[in-house]
Design goal:
The complex is a heterotrimer of chains A (about 220), B (about 220) and C (about 40). By secondary structure, chain A is mainly α. Chain A is about 80% helix and about 0% strand. With about 220 residues, chain B is mainly α. Helix content of chain B is about 85%, strand content about 0%. Classes of the chains: A mainly alpha (about 220), B mainly alpha (about 220), C mainly alpha (about 40). The interface between A and C is medium-sized, with 41 and 29 residues.
Chain lengths: ~220, ~220, ~40
């Protein structure tokens, strides 16, 4: 019961292999950026982690909408699994961002729009999981967290824009440097790896959700 | 439906006018918040003057948060939300009625709090009172729209007192930034053009959240 | 290797492996409780 279907296990193995490949390339193969030095290697994982976190967040939104429309527990499982795994990736995005920021800017934190929005995104995810933790009735839990998930998703672009404007009061927005083919390829490799990792972990988390629901139902039956 | 909304607003308003409990305690709390911040930051008057808009809106937000907890309290005590909900007609009337009630209460608070902050932080209000009022309404509206909604959503959650701020505060970042910066620009003597970006942010936020929250409210309170 | 880079990559690997392991534990525990509940229901 606790074991997942074979295809999930293969998913996990592929994810592991691809992630190893991505780390190897990022650490040893791609040349360190001439301007920014070794620390730039963190960008090879920080950016894909951020993209994966946004995919996770989008899936929370999709699951939430589908649940409210269809009231199908599969949609609810998609939402909660994406949220929990999403928290992992958001936290990694923040951590790698800060680890890059310290040697680069000399400080652990700046009120950079993307970093700030990522931190608020974490707060929104945590809020979503907290709602689920504090609601006992399964239907209400699914419904309320779905509403929170949808509202949270809508908040993010508005928050991002406001923080960009807020920061532009004090500094001009940094112009993005054009990115070389090597870097782009490494981003894509790690993004693919993280997506597979996300899919594997979400599938497992979804299975856990299914078992927990069954357990709840049986315990209520007693 | 307008009739139901008006009825809800009027009922809550009557309770408030008769007891004045909420308003007085909110006012005291808001003033205390301003004092606490001033003590924490220090008597550096130019500094306080510079951050006055921020302090003011944080005080409004915290006070509003506390008063939100009581939004549906009178209904809860009398088992009333069920009654309101089962009455024929759109449950959205409940949301809109409570929204207007919260808005009016906070605006009444601000009528006193803005001058109080002006006194404490050596800020000139009088020449700018009209644009200031406009910003105050837009910002308070944003707070009330999101706050009234999340208050209903978290009504039956365990640990409700922490869940409401936890969910609401990220949602309040845009209107907070908009209100604080627009207030600061207005107080510095800027014209409507300078504050335009922030006003646009406030209006966009208010419109988007009003539409979404009103639309989805029945799902939040359904049995 | 740069210490920050090592910390970053290390953190990613540690988190992913830790979370996968946690899921495995939670799945095992829940599956066990479910079996017990099923047996009792009979």
């Amino acid at each position: 019961m606790g074991r997942s279907a074979p295809y999930v296990r293969w998913l996990g193995v592929s994810a592991l292999i691809l992630m190893a490949a991505g780390s190897y390339v990022g650490l040893f193969v791609v040349g360190a950026d001439v301007e920014m030095g070794e620390v730039q290697r963190l960008m090879y994982v920080h950016v894909p982690a951020a993209w994966t976190a946004f995919v996770a967040f989008f899936l929370v939104f999709v699951g939430s909408v589908l649940y409210l429309v269809q009231r199908d527990s599969r949609a609810d499982r998609l939402a909660v699994a994406s949220a929990e795994v999403g928290v992992v990736f958001i936290t990694l995005t923040l951590a790698t961002g800060m680890l890059w920021g310290k040697p680069t800017w000399g400080v652990w934190w700046t009120w950079d729009p993307r970093l700030t929005t990522t931190a608020l995104l974490l707060a929104i995810f945590v809020g979503y999981l907290a709602v689920r933790g504090f609601a006992d009735d399964p239907e209400r839990r699914a419904r309320w967290s779905a509403i929170v998930g949808i509202l949270g998703f809508i908040q993010v672009p508005i928050v991002y824009l406001s923080v960009v404007w807020w920061r532009s009061l004090h500094q001009p927005p940094s112009s993005p440097r054009s990115v070389g083919g090597d870097i782009y390829a490494t981003w894509m490799l790690n993004f693919a790896a993280f997506l597979l990792v996300f899919a594997y972990l979400a599938a497992r988390r979804s299975r856990l959700a299914k078992l927990e629901t069954e357990l709840e139902a049986r315990l209520a039956y007693d | 439906m307008p009739g139901r909304i008006a009825a809800i607003v009027w009922k809550d308003l009557l309770i408030e006018i008769r007891t004045k409990v909420s308003f007085h305690s909110m006012l005291a709390f808001a003033a205390l918040v301003l004092f606490v911040f001033s003590f924490a930051i220090g008597p550096d008057t130019p500094l306080l003057r510079r951050i006055a808009p921020g302090l003011l809106w944080v005080a409004i937000a915290f006070t509003g948060l506390l008063s939100l907890n009581r939004t549906y309290q009178s209904e809860e005590a009398a088992g009333g939300l069920e009654g309101l909900r089962m009455a024929p007609g759109d449950p959205r009337a409940i949301y809109l009625g409570k929204l207007v009630g919260n808005l009016l209460l906070l605006l009444a608070l601000e009528v006193v709090l803005f001058p109080a902050a002006a006194v404490l932080f050596h800020v000139e209000l009088a020449p700018h009172w009209l644009p200031l009022a406009a910003v105050a309404v837009l910002g308070t509206l944003g707070f009330s729209i999101a706050g009234t909604f999340y208050a209903a959503l978290t009504l039956h959650l365990r640990a409700r007192e922490i869940m409401l701020p936890l969910l609401l505060i990220p949602a309040l970042v845009p209107p907070l930034l908009g209100a604080v910066n627009a207030t600061r620009i207005v107080l510095d003597g800027g014209g409507p053009g300078d504050a335009a970006t922030w006003v646009r942010l406030l209006v966009a936020y208010d419109v988007v959240f009003f539409v979404v929250c009103t639309w989805i409210f029945p799902l939040a309170v359904e049995e | 290797m740069n210490g920050y880079v090592a910390a970053g990559y290390g953190l990613i690997w540690a988190s992913v492996l830790w979370y996968a392991w946690r899921l495995r534990r939670r799945l095992a525990t829940t599956a066990q409780k479910l079996s017990e509940a099923e047996r009792r229901n009979e």
